[in-house]
Amino acid sequence: MPLNRILFIILFLTSLYSYSQNIESDRKIYKTRRIDNPPKIDGLPDEKIWQNVAEADNFVMLEPGDGDPIPASHKTIVKILYDDEAIYVAAIMRENDPEKTMRQFTQRDNLNQSEFFLMDINTYDDGENQTRFIVTTAGTQADARMTGDNEDFAYNVVWESAVSNDENGWYLEMKIPYSALRFPEKPAQLWGVQFAREITHLNATYVWNYVDKSVGQFSQYTGLLNGITNIDPPVRLSLYPFTSLAVDQFDGNTDFNFNAGMDLKYGINDSFTLDMTLIPDFGQTAFDKVELNLGPFEQVFGENRAFFTEGTELFNKGDLFYSRRVGSTPIGFNDAQTEALENEEILENPDKAELINALKVSGRTDRGLGIGFFNAITNKQEAIFRDTITGNTRRKTTESFANYNILVLDQRFNKNSSITLINTNVTRDGHFRDGNVTGFLFDIYNKQNSFNFEGQAKMSNVNLPGQNKTGFASFLSVERTKGNIRYSLANEFANETYDINDLGINFINNYNNFSWNASYQIFEPKGSYNTYRIGLYGQHLRRYKPDVPVNTGMGGEFFAMTRDRFAFGGSMDINSEFRDYFEPRADDTYILYKPFGSMSAFVSTDYRKTFAYDVRVYFEEYYKSSRSDFSLSIEPRYRFSDKFNLIYEFEYSYQNDRPSYVDQVNDQIIFGVRDQKSIENSLNGSYNFNTKQGLNLSFRNFWSTASFAENSYSQLLEQGSLNSLDYNVTDANNPDANFNIWNLDLSYRWQFAPGSEAILLYRNAIFNEDKLSYLGFNDSLDNLFAQPARHNISLRVVYFIDYNKVKNLFRG
C-alpha cells in the first residue's frame, strides 16, 4: 500500500506540474568570436587581440542586496574568445582603493578571505550540473562541479589562469581547454554562463545575470554564451600515474612500503566520463576523528579518499551510498578477535578490506538523462591463528571477495525537476551476506516554482545464510519555496526489515515519522541586518510495528547576520518522553526517557578581520530527573599574514546521570547511570609560500571518560522502566572507560606542474583505552604518552599526462 500510494502521487504530480519560471526572457546574452592565435595567459589583458571584443558588464548585486547596480568605482568587464582548443576569458575588475583588496595565499580550492572572480559554464544549458571556475586575487585556482546549489570542490580539471594588479584594480586571464568540459557534438554551441565578483572588503557579491534569491536556485539564472561554432570535442584522456614511498615505525618495528599505480579519466563520448583507479593508494588520506563510542550505532566518518568524493553527485541520490563501506572493516573482524581457541594467539586479523580497484562512469545526455555506474572490488581477508604449543596455524575468512555496484538513471527536466532510479548491490562471493537496494525518487517543482514536491520509495533485500530479508522505506514532502514566508510538511516511513547497510548506512528502521517547519526570512538588508531568519519546527515520531508513539517535540530557531558580518543565532525546543528502542540492544525492547528541553546558541565574528572567533553552547535538561547534557565549543582563528593562518578549536562536553546500557546477562538487560566527559583540542594551520607550495599542519587530541556510579545498576523492565539490581562489577565486565587519542599530520605540498604534485607527509599517532575513568586529563595524557607512538613518513608524487599534449608531442 505505501508503494502504490507513492507511485500514484508521482504520476499525479508529474502530470500536473512542470517548470516554466519566466526567467528565459530576462537572460543576458554574450556573443563570442573565434580567433586564430591565442592570447598569452599572463594576467595582463592588454594585448591587441582583446581590443574590439564584446564586453559583459553591468553587474548587479547578489549579496547582501538584491539587484543594485555595481558602482562605477568597481566596474567589472568580462571578455571571451575561443579557438579550436579552448575558450579564453579576460576580466577587468576596477577598484578605487586597491590597498583594501583582500589577497590571501592559499592552495587549490581554498578561498579563505581572498576576493575572487567566478565563472560558471553549463554546456548543456539545463540549469543543473555546471562547472565552476574561480580565481582569487592571489592567483589561487578553485574548480567545482555544481549540482543545484551544491559545490563539489573534490572535482578537479586542468586549466590555466594568471592575475595581475595595479593602482586601478586587478586583472585576470583564463584558458579553459575543451578537455576540461563536456559538451554536445553539434555545429553551434549554446551554453549557459554566469560571472560573479566577490568584493570581500565591501562584503558584497555581484553577478552578471540577475539572480532572484527568493525563487529557485542560483544555477537556474545563467545567461547565454553563443557564437561558438564548429568545434570538436577532443579526446578526453588524462592519466595520473603516481608513486609513493613510506616508512612506518611502531613499537620497535620498522616497515618500508613502496607503491605505484595510476588513476585514469577517459571521455567515452561527449557526455560520459570513465574514472578509474588502478592499484589504489590511500596512505596519505586524512585521519578519522575517532571518538569514544558507547552508543548502539557505529560511528560515521567523512570520506577522505579523493576518488570517492569527486564527481559522485549522481551516486549520492537517495542517500544509499556510504562510500566508507568500500574497504571498511571486514564483517568477521570482531568475531575473529574473540574466537581464538585455548593456547591460540592471533597472528593477523586485518581491520580493513583491501581495495583492488574501482571505477565510475557518469555523465548526462543533451536530453537531461544522467547515467552513473560505480564498481569497486575488495579482496578476500583472513584472520590467522597460531597454536602456541604445536606451532600449527589455521585461517578463518573474515571478509569474502566482494563486488560493490551502483547504477543510477536520473532524468532532469524543466531545469529544476528530476525523476531518479537507483540500484546498489553488494555481492560477497556467497559468504556472510549479500545486499541489494532499489530506490525510485522524484523532485518536482510547480509551474510558478513556488512549491517543491519530493518523494522516495526504497526497497532493500538482504540475503543471509538461510534467510532472505526484504524491507521498504519511503519519504514524502511538500515545501513552499518562494517568498519570505516558507513552510513544509514531511513523512518518513520504514518497516522493521529495511536494511541498506551493505553499501549505505541507516541506524534505525521500523518508524513512521511526521515533521513540519515554517519560517520567515529576508533576502536583502533591513535595518542593521544583512539577513535574518526566524523558524518554527515540530515532529511526531512513531513506531511502525507496534503503532505506538515514540516522541513529540517542537521548537524555534533564529539566525541573523549584521552588516558587519557578525552572525548569531540559536534554538530552543521541548520534547515529550522518549521511547528509545535501540539503547537496550534487543528487539522490541525500549527504555523510557523523561521529557526534556534543550537550548543552543552561537556567535561568529567577521572572518575578514585578523582575529575572529566562533563560540557555540548547548544545554539539555530532563524534567523530573537529574540527567543533563552540556557542550561548549570555542574556535578562535588568527591570520598572521596573507601567507600564515592558524585555527584552534576547544570543545568540552559533559553528560550527567544518563541511564545507559551495560550488559545482557541471560534474559536480563542491565543498565547503569553514566557520567561522560570529553575534551577535544585541535589545531589547523597553513603557511603558503605561494599558491603552488605550502605547509599544512593538522592536530587533534580527543580525551573522553565514562564512569558508572556505584550501586546504580538496574534491570530494564517491559514498559521501559528500571528496577534496582545488585550487579557484581569485575575487571572483566567493568563498563567504565578512559579513551585518549592523538593524531598529528604535517605536510609539504608542491604543485610542480599543472595537475601534478608532490606531497611529503609526516604522521604521528598515539592511542590508549583502559578502564581508568577516575583519571584526570593530565594523568590520562601521561598514560597516553607511555604508549608506543606510530611514526610515519611518506612521499607521494602524482604526474598529470594529457593525451592530447602527448599526441601532439609525438607528432612533432
Structure in words:
There is one protein chain. By secondary structure, this protein is mostly beta strands. The protein has a domain at 32-226: Immunoglobulin-like (Sandwich), CATH 2.60.40.1190. 5% of the residues lie in helices and 52% in strands. The chain contains four helices and 46 strands. The strands form five sheets. It has a 24-stranded antiparallel beta barrel. The longest helix is centred in the first third of the chain and has 15 residues, at 2-16. It is globular. Residues 233-810 form the DUF5916 domain. Residues 41-195 form the Carbohydrate-binding domain. One of its GO terms (molecular function) is hydrolase activity, hydrolyzing O-glycosyl compounds.
CATH class of the domain at 32-226: Mainly Beta
- Overall pLDDT level: 92
How would the global form be characterised? globular
CATH topology of the domain at 32-226: Immunoglobulin-like
Under the CATH scheme, the architecture of the domain at 32-226 is Sandwich
InterPro entries: Carb-bd_dom_fam9, DUF5916
GO biological process, one term: carbohydrate catabolic process
Pfam families: CBM9_1, DUF5916
Domain Carbohydrate-binding: 41-195
